[in-house]
Amino acid sequence: MSIVNTLKKSAIESLTALYAQSFTEKDFQVNQTKPEFEGDYTLVMFSLVKSLKFSPETIGQQLGEHLIKNYSQFFTAYNIIKGFLNLTVADSYWQDLLNKNYKKSCYGKKEFNGKKVMVEYASPNTNKPLHLGHLRNIFLGWSVAEILKANGYEVIKSCIVNDRGIHICKSMIAWQRFANGATPESAGSKGDHFVGKYYVKFNDVYREQVADLVKAGKSKDEAEKEAPIMKDTQQMLVDWEDGKPEVITLWKKMNNWVYKGFDVTYKSIGADFDKTYYESNTYLLGKDIVQKGMDKKVFYKKDDGSIWIDLTNEGLDEKIVQRSDGTSVYITQDIGLALHKYEQYKIEQSIYVIGNEQNYHMKVLQLICKKLLMPNADNMYHLSYGMVELTSGKMKSREGTVVDADDIINEMIATSQQHTEELGKVKDFMEDELTELYKTIGLGAMKFYLLRVDPKKTMIFNPAESIDFHGFTGSFVQYTYARIKSILRKQITNDLMPNDLMPNDFLKLEKEIIIAAEQYPAIIEQACTEHNPSVIANYVFNLSKTFNSFYAELSIANAESESKKQLRLKLSLFTANIIKSSMSLMGISVPERM
RNA sequence: GGCUCGGUAGCUCAGCUGGAUAGAGCAUCAGCCUUCUAAGCUGAGGGUCAUUGGUUCGAAUCCAAUCCGAGUCACCA
Fold first, then answer.
1. Does residue A357 lie within 7 Å of nucleic acid chain B, judged by its CB?
2. Among A147, A305, A433, A545, which residue's beta carbon has the most beta carbons within 10 A?
3. From the Cβ of A551, is strand B under 7 Å away?
4. SS3 A112
């Protein structure tokens, strides 16, 4: 149990004993003591005044006294300032914690709890390459999956590939018309980029055709519908649905180019999936559910044959679930896939990492599932994240302001190489080690930058800031780790000393480290309940900062005494382990040297 | 227009289940490398927590209204 929980429990028991009333955690607050006061944790007394009818000072006095008398293994001293009861935690408690855990690489992680969770993320379209927004999605999804694992869940990482539809046909048409049989190989281009080029080409041609038609006197709406290339694309979609062989062949060929490209990107950023769903396989799912929903009167049919659900009682609108021509809409397959996932894996929770532009859609989806009394309806969780914007405003593919994923990653790696070379600390590194290091630093910077912000918030991507190596960055944390490992290599020759040789009083900076380390398990838990990796990023940054102050102020190798040296080495190793563990929860590796 | 989300230092962000003088990083300025990695450390300046009212012993945090910004409300996906 964490010291905070121990404190809460002890305080509740003490209050009950003192005042013969029952109390709960909500009756008072526990905070970490501010640095300017004596003590480690603080109980706030004000909220107890009303029911106990004593002054906050009096309550604090009595409670403090009772705590150090009856829980002396945890608390050794107290002081009261106004209504704040500051408690000092026993050094023996910290020592014990340190000795038990400093070597453990799994510190803070929980045992398997028997529950299965699915995290769906990435979910790209196969008509263009991945961009910065996808990166936020992928890093988030991957990290949340790791955080869930650390909390004892079995996690299935999944991906739904949007591999069919009118947007896919657009790049197919353009390739057919304008590529002269070119392939990624012949063009020397990465498959997804290659296909993306034809998607852009489609839009160029389409715009021209629309403009010509407008010039010829058509209205804009008419022109957009009648542009020949658009008509051909629509025909191609019909042909695809009919399974026309040459269309299917082309579709497969081009999608495979894209998959090859995606795989390269996924591999370079460390993304992986346990299960990939393809829209071309799932888009018909859900149709029978619609039929059953009709029978249950959850849905109703309009005169033209289209099928709807009325959500106006829930404050939403009516929503179509099947077109008048009998084909399904986007949400239909989502209903089907949601049920399919549940039946296939019997998952406890189904997490969808999807941008907040789809908040409404996801709300409707879950509501429909609930109305259909689907067993998993309550366990769907939309991990909604904010858009990534540029300092110049939003990314717009039409205006060419989209930051390409591969480009930005390569740039990060190149910049980390340049910066590392300038610092000149890696002269004795082997070629392989250097390549690995640049990747570690560049990708680490990128991931940390995107994960350090609360997922639900829109974030601004500032290129200069993202490639920074100072302050609140991945490299700062990596550097701290490398520094610790360097000293450990030099100083730890034998096993560290047994417990009884430990000194009794921690210095302020030593204490700060052990307090921060003690909080790690609670942080992992918090990140999990909030589905929020930024909790980890903030934590590990603070831990690193604390360590760096400690490192600058106190000598480890030349400590005042051998026992102090042992203590500091343990604190260092403990910190290193936690850094490595935290960073791994964000998919960031840490270098032994840098 | 309806619904949802947001507004904290010049910039990027923490803090939001109410608690002590609102915190980091970047940027600016001043210091610290003959001793464990200076990708570091120490210090300084910088705030009407959008505005107004309310609840409370106590409000950046809760409630209401207003202003500003974003998203969304398709027989698109």
1. yes
2. A147
3. yes
4. coil
What sign results for the dihedral spanned by CA atoms A82, A84, A90, A95? negative
A475 touches strand B (CB under 7 A): yes
Render pLDDT for A135-173 as a digit per residue (tens, 0 to 9): 999 999 999 999 999 999 999 999 999 999 999 999 999
Closest nucleotide C1' to the C-alpha of A470: B39
pTM for this predicted structure: 0.96
Helices and strands per DSSP (H, E), number in chain A: 22, 14
Q: Which of residues 216-255 of A touch strand B (CB under 7 A)?
A: none
Comparing CA positions, the residue from A163, A166, A372 lying closest to residue A288 is A372
- Token pair listed for A574: 């403990």
Fold held by A420-584: Isoleucyl-tRNA Synthetase; Domain 1 (1.10.730)
**Structural domain boundaries in chain A:** 3-89, 171-270, 287-327, 420-584
Q: Tell if A166 CB is < 7 Å from nucleic strand B.
A: yes
Task: List A84's β-bridge partners, or say none.
Answer: A44, A81
Nucleic strand B contact set for A 254-293 (CB, < 7 Å): 279
- In the predicted model, is pLDDT for residue A504 greater than 70? no
Tens digit of each residue's pLDDT (9 = 90 or more) over A112-127: 999 999 999 999 999 9
Å from the A313 CA to the B15 C1': 37
3-state SS assignment for residue A284: coil
Is nucleic acid strand B under 7 Å from A187's C-beta?
A: no
A465 CA → B26 C1’, Å: 8
Tell me which H or E stretch contains A291. helix A287-295
